[in-house]
Specification:
Layout lengths: L1 H10 L17 H17 L5 H11 L6 H23 L26 H14 L4 E3 L9 H7 L6 H15 L10 H14 L4 H15 L10 H16 L1 H31 L3 E3 L22 H11 L4 H6 L5 H16 L10 E3 L2 E2 L6 E6 L3 E6 L2 H4 L7 E11 L5 E8 H4 L6 E5 L1
Parallel strand pairs: 1-2
Antiparallel strand pairs: 3-5, 4-7, 5-6, 6-9, 7-8, 7-9
Helix pairs in contact: 1-2, 2-3, 6-8, 6-11, 9-10, 11-14
Length: 436
C-alpha cells in the first residue's frame, strides 16, 4: 500500500516540484498548498488505500516529521515529481487532449480557455512584486508549437460554430482515405489543427511531427512498440490529403481569413512578452513569423543574413510600409526591434523597481483591450479576441496618463487623456507609447 500511495500522490501533484529544504527547515505557503492539494486528491482517488499513508507522507513532505531518512525522502520525492509531470502530463496527456492544441504547452492548462483581463493584470502585478526577473518566453526549444502557430490556432476559440462545420465537412470528405478506421478521430482532429496552424506546411514536415505526436500520445502507437499498421494508415491518410485538390482548396480557403488576425495575435503576444514584468526571451528565428512545430521542426537553420537585411531596411520604413511587407515578417521584427531599443535606452522603466499599473478602457469593445503602464513612462496597448473584434473599435477609448506620448511604432504624438482606439491603432495593430 505504501508504494501505491506514493505512486498516487506523485500522479496527483499539480506542479513539477516543491522547494522544501529540510536542512534549513525551509518551506513556503505554496509548498504547503500544493502538498495538501495532492494529498486530498489522492485520498479521493484511492479510497481503498488507508488515508493514514497519505497523511504520513504529508507530514514528512512538510517537515512535521524530521530525521535523516525523512529528509532524504523529501529530497528524492521533489526530484521525482518533475520527470513524472513532464512525461505523464506534457508528453502524454498534452498529445491526447486535442480540444484546442494551442493551450497544450509546458505550464499551461488545456482545460482552461484563457483568463479575463483583470486576472491577467493581477498576475502581472504579483510577478512584478515577487518575481520581477522571471523569464518571459513564447517559444522555446521544447514548445510543441511555435508562438505563431498557437496564435493562429487560438482563433478557433472565437469561431467554434464555423470550426465545427468545417470539421464535419472534412471528416466526411476524407473518410475514404482511412484504412481500417485509422487514423482515429482524435488523431485526425490533431492533423487538421496542425495543418491550419502551420499552413502552408509540406508533408515532409508534417509526417515526422505526426510520428512523434502519436508515439508520445501512446494511445495508438508508442516509441517502444510502434503500431506499424496504424502509422502506415496515418501516413497514407496524410498523403491523400495532399493529393486531394478538394481538401486543399477547403483548407486554404479556411486558413486565408485567419492569417491576418493570427498575425495580430502574435504581435500582441510579442509586445506583452517584451513589456510585461520579467525578462523577455526570444527563441532564435522567432524575430519573424515562424510556423514551426516541435523538434526537430523547430531546429531548422535560422537565416540570420535575411534578418540582418530586413533589420537594416526596417529603420527606413514608415508604419504603413512595414505593414505592406507583412508577409516577410516585418511587423513582428518592428515590434521586437523598437521595443527592445526602448528597453535598452531606459532599462529602469522595466526593472525590478518599475511600477506596473493597468489601464481601463471604456466603450462597446472595452473587453478587447489589454493596456498597462510601466515605470510611469511607458504604455503598452494590445487588442485581444481579434477575430471577433474585426477592425471596428466603435466608441472604445482609453484614458492615458497625463503628459505627451510618442508611439514607438508610428512616431505619432498624442496627449494624455481620453484616446480613441480607432485612432490610436489606425496605423499599426499594437501600440507602445513612450512619454516625451
Amino acid at each position: 500500500d505504501v508504494i501505491r500511495a506514493i505512486r498516487e500522490l506523485v500522479a496527483c501533484f499539480p506542479i513539477y516540484r516543491t522547494y522544501v529544504v529540510p536542512s534549513r527547515h525551509e518551506k513556503n505557503p505554496d509548498d504547503e498548498r500544493y502538498v495538501n492539494e495532492a494529498v486530498e486528491m489522492a485520498k479521493r482517488n484511492r479510497p481503498e488505500i488507508e488515508g493514514e499513508f497519505f497523511d504520513f507522507m504529508r507530514d514528512i513532505l512538510l517537515l512535521k516529521l524530521q530525521g535523516s531518512l525523512e529528509s532524504e525522502f523529501v529530497m528524492r520525492f521533489q526530484q521525482f515529481t518533475g520527470p513524472a509531470m513532464a512525461k505523464g502530463v506534457e508528453d502524454t496527456v498534452f498529445y491526447n487532449y486535442n480540444r484546442l492544441t494551442s493551450l497544450n504547452e509546458v505550464g499551461g492548462d488545456p482545460g482552461r480557455f484563457g483568463v479575463e483581463p483583470a486576472e491577467f493584470h493581477d498576475y502581472c502585478s504579483e510577478v512584478q512584486s515577487a518575481h520581477p526577473r522571471t523569464m518571459l518566453a513564447l517559444s522555446t526549444h521544447d514548445t510543441k508549437r511555435s508562438e505563431d502557430v498557437r496564435a493562429r490556432i487560438s482563433l478557433l476559440s472565437e469561431i467554434p460554430d464555423v470550426w465545427e462545420a468545417a470539421l464535419k465537412r472534412w471528416s466526411e470528405m476524407n473518410v475514404g482515405f482511412k484504412k481500417n478506421e485509422a487514423p482515429d478521430a482524435n488523431t485526425e482532429y490533431l492533423i487538421y489543427q496542425t495543418m491550419l496552424g502551420a499552413w502552408p506546411i509540406g508533408k515532409e514536415r508534417l509526417l515526422p511531427y505526426l510520428e512523434k505526436a502519436t508515439r508520445e500520445a501512446k494511445a495508438q502507437t508508442t516509441w517502444l512498440t510502434p503500431n506499424n499498421a496504424f502509422e502506415e494508415a496515418t501516413k497514407s491518410f496524410v498523403d491523400q490529403l495532399y493529393e486531394s485538390e478538394a481538401f486543399q482548396k477547403e483548407l486554404s480557403d479556411f486558413v486565408k481569413p485567419l492569417i491576418e488576425p493570427g498575425r495580430v495575435n502574435s504581435l500582441s503576444l510579442t509586445l506583452l512578452k517584451l513589456t510585461c514584468p520579467g525578462v523577455p526571451d526570444t527563441y532564435q528565428g522567432c524575430e519573424l513569423w515562424d510556423l514551426s512545430l516541435v523538434d526537430p521542426d523547430n531546429r531548422r537553420p535560422v537565416d540570420y543574413q535575411l534578418r540582418r537585411k530586413l533589420l537594416a531596411e526596417l529603420r527606413k520604413l514608415a508604419a504603413s510600409e512595414v505593414l505592406a511587407r507583412s508577409d516577410e515578417g516585418m511587423p513582428k521584427l518592428a515590434v521586437t526591434h523598437y521595443t527592445l531599443s526602448l528597453r535598452r535606452r531606459h532599462p529602469d522603466w522595466f526593472g525590478s523597481d518599475a511600477n506596473y499599473a493597468s489601464l481601463s478602457a471604456t466603450g462597446e469593445k472595452a473587453h478587447h483591450v489589454i493596456a498597462f503602464v510601466r515605470g510611469e513612462n511607458v504604455v503598452t496597448l494590445v487588442p485581444r479576441l481579434v477575430k471577433t473584434l474585426g477592425s471596428d473599435w466603435g466608441n472604445t477609448s482609453i484614458q492615458l496618463p497625463a503628459g505627451r506620448w510618442r508611439n514607438c511604432f508610428t512616431d505619432s504624438i498624442l496627449d494624455g487623456g481620453a484616446a480613441a482606439l480607432a485612432s490610436l491603432l489606425a496605423e499599426f495593430p499594437v501600440a507602445l507609447l513612450e512619454k516625451i
